């Protein structure tokens, strides 16, 4: 489980996250939406120990990332849009390099390439991968140490419909094993099909935190729910 509790973050006196609290539960895909600059990536970076917050907590199974032990990759796998593989390495070399850092052997690297459908492209250089192939490689990297939790920043960005469908099916099978996913995306209608729970953020504040089925029952779509929630906040 991922627990975000009263998180507060400022950069140069500009508030980016304000009293943000929510949970991403086991057995569920939780989607995090919000416009550009609303604080989604900052929240994820805090969760992964790449940034500090001024107040509040971001916990993975009750612990800060830095308290997860010698091999946090076994507990949580992540995919950050900003982390690009070295372009002249092959897909396999990229995984092998990360695998060596987290105690994973070359068979598991091959297995992960197979899982994401990149076996045939394993000896191709990353610079020759399409965007969709790079996204798949990012997912393979997150899965390398067989974690129970995935934290994915924009995993479907730029994917074609087949790729998006593949990621959806993959993540749903992942949480059906009792695992946890937290993912961000701008594609609201795709998230309707993918996530079990939605958290909406605007100007660093939570504006939605509800199960998908309740949102769709009440508003018909994530888009309607999100913009209604913003109207509600404007009136406060
Ligand atoms: N290292 C930093 N120093 C100063 N300001 C930052 C830094 N990182 C992020 N910000 C600011 O924090 C705000 C939130 O950025 P963040 O990247 O978290 O938003 P986001 O919701 O992920 O946006 P997007 O959807 O465009 O990826 C933005 O105003 C951004 O300029």
TrEMBL record:
One term of GO molecular function: ATP binding
Entry-linked Gene3D superfamilies: P-loop containing nucleotide triphosphate hydrolases
Superkingdom to which the source organism belongs: Bacteria
UniProt keyword annotations, A-Z: ATP-binding, Nucleotide-binding, Transport
Xref: InterPro entries: AAA+_ATPase (IPR003593), ABC_transporter-like_ATP-bd (IPR003439), ABC_transporter-like_CS (IPR017871), P-loop_NTPase (IPR027417)
Location of the ABC transporter domain: 2-228
Family affiliation: Belongs to the ABC transporter superfamily.
Name of the protein in question: ATP-binding cassette domain-containing protein
């Amino acid at each position: 489980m991922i627990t975000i509790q009263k998180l507060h973050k400022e950069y140069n006196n500009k508030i980016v996250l304000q009293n943000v609290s929510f949970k991403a539960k086991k057995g569920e895909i939780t989607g995090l939406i919000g416009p550009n600059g609303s604080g989604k990536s900052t929240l994820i970076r805090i969760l992964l120990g790449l940034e500090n917050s001024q107040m509040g907590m971001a916990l993975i199974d009750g612990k800060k990332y830095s308290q997860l032990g010698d091999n946090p990759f076994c507990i949580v796998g992540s995919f950050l849009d900003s982390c690009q593989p070295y372009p002249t390495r092959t897909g396999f070399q990229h995984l092998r390099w990360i695998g060596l850092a987290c105690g994973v052997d070359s068979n598991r690297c091959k297995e992960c390439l197979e899982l994401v459908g990149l076996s045939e492209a394993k000896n191709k250089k990353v610079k020759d991968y399409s965007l969709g192939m790079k996204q798949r490689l990012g997912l393979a990297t997150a899965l390398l140490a067989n974690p129970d939790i995935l934290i994915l920043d924009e995993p479907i960005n730029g994917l074609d419909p087949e790729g998006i469908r593949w990621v959806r099916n993959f993540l749903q099978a992942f949480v059906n094993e009792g695992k946890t996913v937290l993912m961000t995306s701008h594609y609201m209608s795709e998230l309707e099909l993918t996530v079990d729970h939605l958290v909406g953020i605007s100007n660093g504040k939570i504006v939605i935190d509800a199960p998908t089925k309740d949102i769709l029952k009440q508003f018909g779509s994530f888009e309607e729910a999100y913009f209604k929630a913003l109207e509600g906040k404007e009136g406060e």
